[in-house]
Specification:
globular
Length: about 90
């Protein structure tokens, strides 16, 4: 993995994590670094799921893959917020 790949993963993770937070109602007490990590994991898992479903290669923007990634990120942020609120 190159520096460019790492930077790309962080930027995509930030974007997917932010979109995941946006689709959840209310305020989430999840730190930014955790949002990025969850976004990166959701992006990787979403790509794997899209590949398994056969929708990873489409003409134009891969809306189905992005939707899967955002749903996974929202679920991850929701779980992290719920776990974090129980500890506080």
């Amino acid at each position: 993995m190159t520096i460019t790949g790492i930077v790309s993963a962080v930027l995509i993770g930030l974007l997917i994590g932010a979109l995941g937070r946006l689709v959840l109602p209310g305020r989430q007490a999840v730190p930014l670094w955790l949002t990025v990590v969850l976004g990166i994991l959701a992006a990787l898992a979403g790509t794997a799921i899209a590949r398994a479903l056969g929708v990873v290669e489409t003409a134009g923007v891969d809306w189905i893959e992005i939707a899967i990634q955002v749903v996974l990120a929202a679920a991850g942020v929701g779980v992290a917020a719920a776990v974090g609120s129980r500890r506080a």
